[in-house]
């Protein structure tokens, strides 16, 4: 009886090992890029599988006339989730709003935190020194504005 149990165990282990290798091979095949011929074959299979609506004649396969670059479309999409401003953006907006006088170095140090808290108090927000969604919504308006305290220099022509 012990031999039979051992035989079943060895057989099960061998089955698992060979079964897993077949799954890996098929996964690798699925990850290979498709050639234009494969795409055409799939599209013709899909067209023949979908019946045409009653009363309409079937149409020939539509070929695209122009290619749309995917990277450009993805770059135009807004980031998912709430926007997290960089330290440079925070310091620039605070400086434009007149709350920060230090250099824009991209580091949130004690001067920047104090400026954030002062801005939050003046805007009626909770002064915690952190730029969350509400603080950034109020602060972002100052990101592209010139500082009101800085005098405008005449343009020489």
Explain this structure.
By secondary structure, this protein is mostly helical. It has a domain of 56 residues: Muramoyl-pentapeptide Carboxypeptidase, domain 1. Helices cover 52% and strands 0% of the residues. The longest helix is centred in the N-terminal third of the chain and has 29 residues. The protein starts with a helix and ends in an 18-residue tail after the last helix. The relative contact order is 0.07. The C terminus is likely disordered.
Present the secondary structure layout.
Layout: H1 2-30, H2 36-49, H3 70-76, H4 87-97, H5 110-122, H6 133-139
**Stretches with pLDDT under 50, minimum 5 residues:** 147-157
Largest sheet composition: none
Number of strands: 0
Radius of gyration: 32 Å
Shape label? elongated
State the CATH class of one domain: Mainly Alpha
- CATH topology-level fold name of one domain: Muramoyl-pentapeptide Carboxypeptidase, domain 1
Compact overview of the structure:
This protein is mainly alpha-helical and 157 residues long. It is built from 6 helices and no strands. The protein starts with a helix and ends in an 18-residue tail after the last helix.
Q: Can you give keywords for this protein?
A:
157 residues, mainly alpha, Muramoyl-pentapeptide Carboxypeptidase, domain 1, 6 helices, 52% helix, disordered C terminus
